[in-house]
Structures are given as structure tokens and as C-alpha cells.
Amino acid sequence: MKKTLIIISFLFASIIASAQTYELGGWGGVSYYFGDLNTNFNMTHPGPAGGVFGRYNFNERLAIKLGANYTRLGFKDEYSKFTWQKARNLSFETDVVDASLQFEFHFLQYIHGSRDHFFTPYLFAGGGAYFFDPRAKLNGEWYHLQQLGTEGQGKNQEYSLIQPALTYGIGLKFDLNFFWSLNFEVSGRSLFTDYFDDVSREYVDAQALANDRGAIAPLLADRSYEVVEAPIGMAGRQRGDSQARDMFGFIGIGVAYNFANVKCPGF
Length: 267
Fold this sequence. Notes:
The chain is mainly beta and 267 residues long. The protein is 14% helix and 43% strand. The longest helix is centred in the first third of the chain and has 18 residues, at 2-19.
């Protein structure tokens, strides 16, 4: 009986050790922004992106991943095919630092080192937070748009530069050997703000904005004067679409190292 319990305990410990594995890795790729300046999902202007991640595998089907990413995103109205958008002539650029916690579900059994279960497509979803700070260039100098209250935000009432996000996506992972694996992912971030690009609602009175924020603010709030004879930014006129929140996403390839011990042969 005692011998049987020892064997069962050994088998149980082996199963737990093989199921609960840790991975660390990094990835590189591109990012995309979609919002008030990119309304038709134009993917011709990606940003560079990369990050690191750690993964804990509960079993062959379920895992949890913690990741930290960096990217630089931006867009311009001049890229649009719409005449009204070209006339609006807004632009922005921002660095983004993103952190997320995601749960993964494997469509197939995935076991490191297995000859039969060495790859799987997977889905993932979770939440996270990110830092951004949209800026625009005027006469060769960069200005931080949030600080200018371009849509009439009062002082100390500006949108926060740290925001939550929902994360989701799909991927494919497969082993190179027991220790190393490749991960291909396409992921998205649904945002809870429409000010990722500093564009959301209506134009405000230019003189009032200048009185409150200085002479540069109205020049960056309405830049149509650079491309059309009569500026379009009258107070109350639509500047963006506040009903549709902004979003961004990543496409990348990563490599992960598995820290589990090599499993003993079965008997």
C-alpha cells in the first residue's frame, strides 16, 4: 500500500510539474491606430512595436500571460481619401507604454516537447492599462496637445494620460524544441477614451481658447488654415466623432523560453 501511494504521489507530482510551466519571452512587430483621424482602417502607416512577456501554463489548454509593450503611433488627415478630412488637416503622434494581463485558451492540446502536440492556435482576452501623450509639430516644434485643451477642456480637467483598455486577439504558437517556441499574434486594444488622438467633439471659440491656453492652442486646434483659404473651425462645428472610441493593436512574432524541467519518460 505504501509503495502504491509513493508511485501515485510521484505520478501526480510529475503531472503538476509538467502542467504548471513558466515561460519568458520577447516579441517585435508593428502597431496600428484606428480613430478619428483613421476612420477607414488604413493600414499603410504602421508604427514600430515590441515588448516582453511572461506566461504561466495551467495545463495543455489554459494559460495566463503578463506583458509589457512599447510602440509609437501617429496619423495625419492628409492620408485620408475624404476631402473634408484633408481640409481638417489634423495630425498627432504619441509614444505608448502598454501593460496587460490576458487569459489564453488553446484550441488544441499544447505540450512542450511533444511530437504530437507541439503547436496550437489560441484565443486570448484580458485587460490592461497604457500611457500615451499625443503631440503635434508646428513650425518645427513639438507641442503636447493634452496640455493645450484643444477642445476647450478646462485647466485641471484634461483627459488622463493613463487609461484602461480591453485586450483581445488570436495567435499561433509552436515549439522549436522543448525549451524554445515561436508565437505569432494579432491583438487589439479597445479604449475607454476618444482622446487617444486628441480629437473627439467640436471646435471651440478660437479667441476664448487663446485667452485660456495661449496663442499656440487655437493654431493646433484648427489647422485647416494651412490648406484651405477659409478655416473651417467655427465654434460648435464637429471636429471628431465622440460616439466611436479610438483603438490600437499589434501584429508581431515572439520567441519564448520554457523554464520547466524535461519530463521523465512514462512507464
